[in-house]
């Protein structure tokens, strides 16, 4: 059995826990689902629709997958995985390795794609992007909310969960490309009632098109990305805001110097402090002392290295956190983020 760190508490969303692959099931052409359970049968962590987990595969590769099961089911977590033949190897390992009965590391669930209160919900899925939206659809339906789902894919044979979605009747519109072409996003968004919010997951082209269509109509659009949207967005806070909060937390500010140069990072649980020079990342500095710290893309878009910030003000350079999450400074992506203050204290 592969050994992973034991979770600090049942619902610690940053803890790495060991889980057993209880079942692998074929869902569609190139798509399998994988059910993960606690080795001792204890309840799996609580999660909400839109949440994802980091899976540490037997090879050591770390990949992120949205949860697509039922949040009320505390016996297992379910993800669905598309076999990406030209991918970076994670999906190939899951599809081509006999994993049932083996253990994997699981970190999370964490949720950067939460449902917010709205009058109506429009869910737009492309291909395997249906996974978080399936959990949302199930939840919204159970809550009696007004919702509909537009689900595009290459062909019916390649589209997972069609049987389950059929139970929702007219709330779900399936658009296989080989039968009906691509979904007409302008028409879909034009038909949205006032007060609608859009949730979209799928390939980057779809996300960008939906974001643009939503912006043109002032309709809020929430997207879930597992790939890069392009160059990392750097959000530089106004110096005054940094100074104000730096003072409040007892930090000296010096934000401009800190951004341009070195700073130090205290790893509170480990009990050491590391220097982060201008030419290396926090992740690289941390890894010298904590080689087990997990990461995946190392470009700021997957969320695998998300770390809780205890003190100091991070400079966010990732594409994972939304503006509210950035403003809260509760967590940061240490593969790309830096510090606005001379010292950061991280929960590591
Ligand atoms: S490793 Fe992907 S965001 Fe840091």
Quaternary assembly? single chain
Small molecules bound in the structure, each named once: FE2/S2 (inorganic) cluster
Fraction of helical residues: 10-25%
Q: What is the CA-CA span between the terminal residues?
A: 25 Å
CA-based shape = globular
Rg over CA atoms? 21 Å
What is the string of helix and strand elements? EEEEEHEEHEHEHHEHEHHEEHEEHEEE
What is the fold-level CATH name, i.e. the topology of the largest domain?
A: Ubiquitin-like (UB roll)
Q: What descriptive keywords fit this protein?
A:
348 residues; alpha/beta; Elongation Factor Tu (Ef-tu), domain 3; Rossmann fold; Ubiquitin-like (UB roll); 3 domains; six-stranded antiparallel β-sheet; five-stranded parallel β-sheet; 10 helices; 29% strand; globular; binds FE2/S2 (inorganic) cluster
What report would you give on this structure?
This protein is an alpha/beta fold. It folds into 3 domains: 16-110, Elongation Factor Tu (Ef-tu), domain 3, CATH 2.40.30; 120-224, 3-Layer(aba) Sandwich (Rossmann fold), CATH 3.40.50.80; 239-346, Ubiquitin-like (UB roll) (Roll), CATH 3.10.20.30. Helix content is 22%, strand content 29%. The protein is built from 10 helices and 18 strands. The protein has helices at 90-96, 130-142, 162-166, 177-180, 185-190, 204-217, 239-248, 255-260, 282-287, 323-328, and strands spanning 16-28, 31-37, 52-56, 62-66, 77-82, 103-110, 120-126, 147-153, 172-176, 196-201, 221-224, 263-267, 272-276, 306-311, 314-315, 331-333, 338-339, 343-346. The longest helix is centred in the middle third of the chain and has 14 residues, at 204-217. It is globular. FE2/S2 (inorganic) cluster binds next to loops.
